[in-house]
Specification:
This protein is mostly helical. It has one domain. The chain is 75% helix and 0% strand. α1 runs antiparallel to α2 (51-75) and α1 crosses α3 (80-102). The radius of gyration is 17 Å and the shape is elongated.
């Protein structure tokens, strides 16, 4: 009986981290598409290489990372902060891999500060998402 309970807890933990990643990917992809549709991001040519577009993308992706880690913490069966930080650690590693993979591929991948910003913000955003859940802070909607 306890083995079954333990297996369920592990599956719920994995599901919580996965759900947080789904939230981040869906929100980021939808926002990128919206930014292209309304003309805030360039529609043609190389990927976004201008700093002002990348700064905006860094801001909204950081907010989405916080929301994703909050979701992870909310769904965690126990120890919400640990789950949020695990999600952040995975994002941190993936950001490092992305930075290394694109580092010398040319100016069409933008300035080097952008992938570095994703690496630097991964764990603080994860901590903030976990903290928001642990503090039982809830935004008041209209």
């Amino acid at each position: 009986m306890t083995e079954l309970r333990s297996n369920r807890r592990v599956l719920r933990s994995i599901g919580a981290v996965f759900a947080g990643f789904v939230v981040v990917v869906v929100l980021s992809t939808a926002t990128d598409a919206l930014m292209n549709a309304v003309g805030l991001f360039p529609k043609s040519g190389p990927p976004i290489a201008e700093g002002r577009y990348l700064a905006l993308a860094t801001v909204y992706r950081s907010v989405f990372a916080i929301i994703g880690c909050y979701t992870t913490a909310k769904l965690a069966p126990a120890r919400p902060m640990l789950h949020a930080l695990v999600g952040g650690a995975i994002g941190f590693v993936l950001s490092i891999v992305g930075a290394i993979a694109t580092w010398n591929l040319g100016p069409e991948f933008g300035p080097h500060w952008y992938p570095i910003s994703l690496v630097v913000t991964a764990l603080p955003c994860a901590w903030l998402g976990g903290w928001l859940e642990e503090a039982s802070w809830r935004p008041k909607l209209l």
